[in-house]
Specification:
- By secondary structure, this protein is of the alpha+beta class.
- The protein has a single domain, classed as tt1808, chain A.
- The chain has 2 helices and 9 strands, in the order βββαβββαβββ.
- The strands form 2 sheets. Strands 4-5-6-7-8-9 form a 6-stranded mixed sheet, with helices on both faces. The chain has a 3-stranded antiparallel sheet with strand order 1-2-3, with no helix packed on it.
- It is globular and about 45 Å long.
- The chain starts with 13 loop residues before the first strand and ends in a 5-residue tail after the last strand.
- The relative contact order is 0.16.
Length: 141
């Protein structure tokens, strides 16, 4: 059962195969296993495109980076008109609470990405840091 999130409903392509549910990524255009985290990630992407009017070409999903000589992978980054990182978003499954660990994780990614705004969400809660203060709610994205 997929929970109702605090993000607006997003039109997603879903299918079941081999007893696994899959979703077609709105950005990567490929089928992915529909985990709780992917459910949140796709709703965030849909929100960015539909509500925030960010062009899909300015959204990157699950790209790798090195942090302390270890490979890491951030969830979503949006880019501004100049190709600079604007929003770095860390998504968790709805059942994962946003806590100190989540902030440490996005902070480590931020050391490399250097986005203007940070967002952490589990689909239920959403917190945004615009490098001046933290705000709550999806409206602050």
């Amino acid at each position: 059962m997929r929970p109702r999130l605090s993000f607006p409903p997003t039109r997603l392509q879903l299918m079941a195969s081999d007893e696994k549910h899959q979703v077609r990524c709105l950005i990567r255009k490929k089928w992915l296993v529909l985990t709780p985290e992917e459910w949140v990630r796709q709703h965030v992407i849909g929100y960015l495109i539909e509500s925030k009017k960010i062009a899909p070409s300015r959204i990157a999903v699950e790209k790798g980076l090195m942090y302390n000589a270890r490979p890491k992978r951030w969830d979503i980054v949006t880019y501004d008109d100049y190709g600079l990182p604007e929003i770095l978003i860390e998504c968790k499954g709805h059942e994962i609470s946003l806590n100190h660990e989540t902030l440490v994780q996005i902070g480590s990614y931020q050391q490399q990405v250097k986005a203007k705004k940070l967002v952490v969400t589990n689909g239920m809660d959403c917190f945004t840091f615009d490098l001046l203060q933290w705000r709550s709610g999806i409206e602050s994205i």
